[in-house]
Amino acid sequence: MRIEPTLRALADTTRLRIVRLLAHMELAVGELAQVLGQSQPRVSRHVRILCDAGLAERRKEGSWVFLRSAIGEERAPPLGAAAARLLAAAERDDAQFAARCAEDRRHLAAIRSARENSAQAYFARHAAEWDTLRSLHTPDGSVEAALSRALGSASLGELLDVGTGTGRMAELFAPRARHVTAFDMSPEMLRIARTRLQDLPAEQVELVQGDFAALPFAAASFDTLLFHQVLHYAQDPALVLGEAARVTRPGGMVAVVDFAAHDREELRSQHAHARLGFSDEQMLALLSDSGFVAAPPEALPGKPLTVKIWTGRRAGLPGAAKPTRKAETA
Q1: In this structure, are 222 and 91 located in the same domain?
Q2: Are strands 177-184 and 205-209 parallel, antiparallel or unpaired?
Q3: Which tens digit of pLDDT belongs to each residue from 245-288?
Q4: Among 308, 307, 304, residue whose Cα is nearest residue 135
Q5: Exposure on the CB side of residue 11, measured as CA atoms within 13 A
Q6: Domain assignment of residue 160, given as a range
Q7: What value, to the nearest 5°, has the Cα angle with vertex 277 and ends 138 and 245?
Q8: Are residues 52 and 186 in the same domain?
Q9: For 183-198, how does the pLDDT look when each residue is reduced to its tens digit (9 = 90+)?
Q10: How many structural domains is the chain composed of?
Q11: Fewest CB atoms less than 10 Å from the CB: which of 63, 100, 155, 287?
Q12: Are residues 29 and 177 in the same domain?
């Protein structure tokens, strides 16, 4: 970051309001326009200035563009962190600015409500098929409790939830993580996850769209990786777990929650499962070949499907990290 573009970007009341809003939650450009009571093209111009100055980051998910704060975190550059502290102090000491920020935050309630209504409509459309899947295996609560035990009692550090879906796992384990990255290919599912996670501190959670076979993260970025009922969608599980190993720090953990090998062909035809579960031999070989030292798996028998939890520790960095595709941005 440079001081002159930073100060120029902050020399506007609307942009100051945007930066304070993004400190509380990630917002789409249209949502920002709604809160600010301004046209979307005008807000987009302000957003461009903030992004060019390094004060905000934009990310495209399908046809939507979301904005998040680029300052005020542990990973923010010193100048950005200083700017965040300055604006927080301004809200405490400048009564007029504080009143404007408080009014903006009240408008966020309408954004949260709209997201929740959209999520409820999505769940209503898909309730029947999800209920069918749930009826085939161990209740979710039992699986979540077993997964929590398998992950141990230590901090999860930097957590990557691969195929986050509705964001349930990210929500469940956020209190045990320093930072959570909720990752999914589907923009619609990320919008559902965003609704579930919108009450978490903005600096603790990040939602990223991409392909789990080409993770858009640097090597050794995470302490814990979680695949909850997602690996059966992989055409090439070895490639996916190889990517997982690449972004896991030495000593970091991977946890795979999925079905034991089964013969329910309707899951392939009706629910797009590429794999009809995994045997222990298959999964332990996949983990070992990827560079993880596997622990004994845990089985949670259901009728007719058994859920398995496989975990492993990263033994060391790969000999050569392959290039990765960058996260999609607008």
Answers
A1: no
A2: parallel
A3: 999 999 999 999 999 999 888 887 777 788 889 999 999 999 99
A4: 304
A5: 6
A6: 136-314
A7: 105
A8: no
A9: 998 888 888 899 899 9
A10: 2
A11: 63
A12: no
